Amino acid sequence: MDFRWKLKDKAKPESVAYLSHEINVNTTLANMLVNRDIHDFQQAKDFFRPDLDKLHDPMLMKDMDKAVKRLVDAIDNKESILVYGDYDVDGTTSVALFYGFIKAFYDKVAFYIPDRYKEGYGISEKGVRYAAENGFSLIVSLDCGIKAIDKINLANELGVDFIICDHHTPGEQLPEAVAVLDPKRKDCPYPYKELSGCGVGFKLVQAFSEYTQRSEANLYTYLDLVAISIASDIVPISGENRILAYYGLDRLNNNPRPGIKALILKGKLEKDLSITDIVFKIGPRINASGRLEHAKASVELLISKDLDEGVRRAELVEDVNAARKNFDENITREALEMIEIQEQTGTFKSTVLFKEDWHKGVIGIVASRCIEKYYRPTIILTESNNKATGSARSVFDFDIYEAIEACSELLEQFGGHKYAAGLTLPVDKVPAFQKKFEMVVSERVREIHLKPILEIDDELILDQINYKFYNILKQMAPFGPGNPEPVFCVNQVHAENVRILKEKHLRFEIIQDGQNTRPVCIGFGFAKYYELLNSKMRFNIAFEIRENTFRNTSSLQLYVKDIKFD
């Protein structure tokens, strides 16, 4: 992909000099930290040494007192509790956490995940009626419910109470639930607003544990699930999420629950999983059941009691994930072929594709895959229940929700946000929608939107790349939104010992005038540059610094993000 490089602005020199002196790091590192809003010793200590004691008091969350009281009353009165969650990774980890915690000491609890195809997203009428008909007097909803006004009203009519744990932005009206826990409520004083759905569920469990004087050590055994939700739901890894992700990753790598351990073993995943590994290797496996079949299988995997059970359930999830990958690859290939044909007829600023037999569960993934090759606002549609239904994905700084809204006269329903949305329309209106959406995007999109940006933390010289520098970078993990893995550039280098690996990757060393360091670079998918690099032509290179261990010998390597020739 052809990136536009954007070198981050330098922080104020006086701020950099102060922090450099305060924590004894060089100015390059101090500049990066100031750009991450770390200005003094205490902020640096909180960043580099996350501490569970620094988690916020859960009782600061609006309605937490009501939620804890209702949960305590339900258990004291031997009521049946239904734990209700969405079918994605955040929803299934939320349910596994809350159900697993309650089930350990209370039997009258069950869980419910809506069917993606029969019930759709969020609280469903079927789910509410299921609770009422089966004697559940309390539903705890996780990662959903904040806009379920009508469904909560129905529950109230049927004598079923609701505790809502959600992290999505509320509408103007809140549901009439017993308690509505959502840090994004306008009237919620909770100091950290970016928790995942599982994170909100964790805060309820934390408050309940404190109220009932249960062990904090038991509570923290669920942090592997919280870390998976944080990574998979792409919430910022800042503030409280950084603490939860840090300790969750530690648990994931050193003492994961049986179902996750089985998933790691079956997937042959490497040790020391990172946030990126969760996003691309753990999350998709957990998500697969909800995409193709029923997410209940993922919850059952996550709550497995021992490794044998975990392995059996992981095998089922692996099979579904293999099918998901097959659908994903085939549909992506078909979609890219359709775009190639379309490209021959003209120049387009958007992509809207429709095929009636594409699998609804993977079209969001396919939209993202298309953007990797054709970087423009993209909507992939398929037929479901005699309607065209689809997923939309956007590009840097382009509001796809507003573009879809401008075509609303052709739609039956739509929802989402700036970078991702869903929509439904009559099949016979697809051609009109394709035409109108292209017109709207063409009017609003600018060239800056149609070229991906690669943000670069700083320019280095090669001798700066050493273990002293890297060991501090490593302590800045976990990386993710809000704390991206540092990307650097080195200018005016040339390559030596260039080799092609597996026909599409490159391995080479780079040399810079006046520098002694000659790091090895690994460029995945960069084989097309073999001739240019071999010609000794000078170039600029953007990269991340990683450690590679081979035959018990470790060295630093540069993982290439982009190359620009003069």
Describe what you observe in this structure.
- By secondary structure, the protein is of the alpha/beta class.
- The protein is 42% helix and 20% strand.
- The chain contains 20 helices and 18 strands.
- The strands form four sheets. A five-stranded parallel sheet has the order 3-2-4-5-6, with helices on both faces.
- A hairpin with a 3-residue loop joins β14 and β15.
- α13 (275-292) crosses α15 (307-343).
- The longest helix is centred in the middle third of the chain and has 37 residues, at 307-343.
- The protein starts with a strand and ends with a strand.
Note the topology:
Blueprint (H helix, E strand, L loop, with lengths): L3 E4 L5 H11 L3 H9 L5 H8 L15 H13 L3 E6 L3 H15 L5 E4 L12 H9 L2 E7 L6 H9 L3 E5 L13 E3 L15 H16 L3 H5 L2 H10 L6 H16 L3 H9 L8 H18 L3 H7 L4 H37 L7 E4 L8 H11 L4 E7 L2 E7 L6 H6 L7 E4 L3 E7 L3 H15 L8 E4 L1 E2 L7 H8 L13 E14 L3 E8 L7 E4 L6 H5 L4 E12 L2 E13 L1
Helix pairs in contact: 1-2, 4-8, 5-8, 5-10, 5-14, 6-7, 8-10, 10-11, 10-13, 12-15, 13-14, 13-15, 14-15, 15-16
